[in-house]
Fold this protein.
Amino acid sequence: MKRIEVKLSLSVVAPLLDLMKASSDVLEAQIAAPLALDDIDAEFRDDWKAELLAGQQEELHALMGLFNSDFFVNGVVAFDEDNAEVIVRACSALRLRLRRHDLKVLGDEQLESGAIELESLPEPLQKPYMCYVFLGTIQELIIQHLDGAILRGAAAEEGVEFEPSADDDGEFEDDADGEDGGDGGDDEKR
């Protein structure tokens, strides 16, 4: 099983965890991406929202669980095929919450371009912006290093056989859909 262990700076990440926890607590009771489902049966809508909320809660618990007492001892978080997809979704939920609540004065283009200088932001926006970037970085790490592993897992659940094969230039391809599924990192541990 492919696994990535990332050593984080406790002095940088620890202050962000308070904001992540507060946002996660809010998302215990509301879906990160609001749904307008007024045109469907009320009972079906309520059941669907409850299912989405339960899934979101599970994902957020998995993400916040990475930052347990072991993290505060060694500063390491680990991602693997089993938690990668869940962690990416939890990061998305928190980023949506930050974008809609804490960073609503910033435009989408500003946030996604990464061209914002932290020091140029008013102090109340600095921590939410750092958290937004941190969560995006986690997503990028997982996608970059575990994307093929996630695809293999999804393919196996659907009964599709996944066999990575090296092409002529040594790159790996996902035979299921032809997309690159290679591992490009030296930072990962197996």
